[in-house]
């Protein structure tokens, strides 16, 4: 009964979505406020119906109702409750339900918090948003319905893929989907602006918080997925340039470019056409990602099921939205008036340069990901494009971008002084040189490239700090005054600094993990010892355990300091086997030392009782994800800037008339 | 890339020899050969896996390929000879870094073409804007003053001084 109610709620959402596409759009053409006003309530109602469908599906999973095909195929009665719930989106149908749920949440949020939008813009935005929702509801109902029943209800389910039975599944997809789907808002705003043929700086201000929110969640989602791969796959790989990873990385890059170009549009009313195009591209890349992952054209752990009918349907959605939006863009973009001019060397110029490099890097990833597919379709020739290609193309682009990152925020608007900025960055450069020397000394005359890469990361971090130090005049005025100035700084300035510092921190982590680590691979029997850098690991014993739906084989290791034999802890890597699927997982053991980690994983035991073990020391590795967290904090700070808060600009303006602001408005 | 490779070699040479194996029974006794084998392994695809190199993969085929690479190396093949041998056997699909052929010219050419195209487009746009500012003498564009305005400004400033 619950499944049928969920199914019905989804049908109602579909009908509502159609109403929300037609009525407000027609109302906007007729300038009829009543018709345009329909969009708000329908968006909120859509959210309730989709939420109901989602809860209904969760209920089927929690009750282990195996008469529902989707539950039978992906769940097991003995599975822990958290995996029963997260298993809802651990399969194709359920993940699509999560997708539309988040889409409807965003629609409802625009309806609720969009009071300050002009009526026509709001109506158009919600109509476009609803068109996307309509296409995906239809897709779910026609080809991916999770509520279908089995002819005969089986007694037990087939269980979820063991690799997915991990807390990562509860967090990673929802974060990523909020990011993907959040970009639909910027897309809808862009299309609405094109339909109206009107766009101004206020548009950028309305779009920016949504884009920022999507960017924060994408960043977190990608970092979380990378960390999950790191601890779950058994050799500590955290990024593989896998097509599915690229599918999430491309929207992130486009979204990063969009954030930067939207700044120019908001402050200087320039780059309008480009910003609109980026908003379209960012969401298009999200759709391409969905197509790549869901259609089964790729083989990957993320591809739950491959079905040509689904692929064709998603491809249809893709062509409709990307083709349609680009056609509309070509038609309307020439009508948009260009705004303020600026010299090539200026803050705007720096942001344009950022856009050039980020978009080209995104293009390199795009071609590397899709080229093998296209080549095989056209010529039948099969090639592989793997990490070496991406390291060679993406790497140089992104490293040169990092080199100029510190210059951007120090540049003046309209016309900048490159030499002056370079002089102001001398301190940061000096710190970077010290970093290079220190890294070179610590490495004991090893390869030269690594210290330079470390120097680059230090330069990015120190450069971002330079901006803060200058604005607070930390080195020139008493500390108390500097603190007061720090409080007066716009939050977006802090946001910029944090995001850039995060980039540098992540780069440090990447260098540490890829270049400075150590690796041991050996076959050990209980009682034997393996050493790595400053630690000795003694293999004590093995044990077996029975979990709720798996068997576990574990090995116990004691970790000692090499110098004095002091015990600093134990590590217990294990292997799990899941009888319901006949497969297993490798559970590596991790021990954190500072920001580095010891990483220990087991192979399959040999006949003579010895076990192959892989032991890694990965220095600085945690910085990869800590850097992402710092970036997200930067995004959050920027989001909390008062000019972006709903209704805040009005109040702020009133205050400004009273007393002068301490800092010039950024 | 050469530089990166030599860097990896130099780094791994600092590590004692017994560690240099993906599986303990695959180790080559010669650490220099083993480093070359590891480097090659990272460039070769495990063809039954989901986008993994044979260096990363646990699949039996990957192990066979790793051993094959090591056999060829011990027989005195150069890195390129090993790669040629594997391509002859398995096709270009085995290479994670596609070779430059008529099929991959577009692939390798696209990223630099994008950067160059972008730069050229930016320069042209910047020039056109300057030109637009120059041919519209009546209208001020952005922060730039037209020559007529400059002259008027100069005369105003002069009259103010006296």
Structure, explained:
The complex is a heterodimer of chains A (about 675) and B (about 160). Chain A has about 675 residues and is α+β, with helices and mostly antiparallel strands. Chain A is built from 22 helices and ten strands. In chain A, the strands form two sheets. In chain A, strands 2, 3, 4, 5, 6 and 7 form a six-stranded antiparallel beta sheet that branches. In chain A, strands 1-10-9-8 form a four-stranded antiparallel beta sheet. The model of chain A is unreliable at about 645-665 (pLDDT under 50). Helix content of chain B is about 60%, strand content about 0%. Chain B is built from six helices and no strands. In chain B, helix 1 (about 1-15) packs across helix 2 (about 30-40) and helix 2 (about 30-40) packs across helix 3 (about 60-75). The N and C termini of chain B lie far apart (about 70 Å). At the A-B interface, helix 13, helix 14 and strand 1 of A face helix 1 and helix 5 of B.
List the helices and strands and how they pair.
The complex is a heterodimer of chains A (666) and B (162).
Chain A lengths: L1 H29 L2 H4 L2 H24 L6 H6 L6 H6 L5 H22 L5 H25 L23 H30 L4 H32 L10 H26 L3 H24 L12 H25 L14 H33 L7 H18 L2 H4 L7 H7 L1 H18 L5 H24 L6 H10 L2 H25 L2 E7 L4 E4 L2 E12 L4 E11 L5 E5 L2 E5 L4 E5 L1 E5 L2 E7 L8 E8 L3 H18 L8 H11 L8
Antiparallel strand pairs in A: 1-10, 2-3, 3-4, 4-5, 4-6, 6-7, 8-9, 9-10
Chain B lengths: L1 H12 L17 H11 L18 H15 L4 H12 L14 H31 L11 H15 L1
Helix pairs in contact in B: 1-2, 2-3
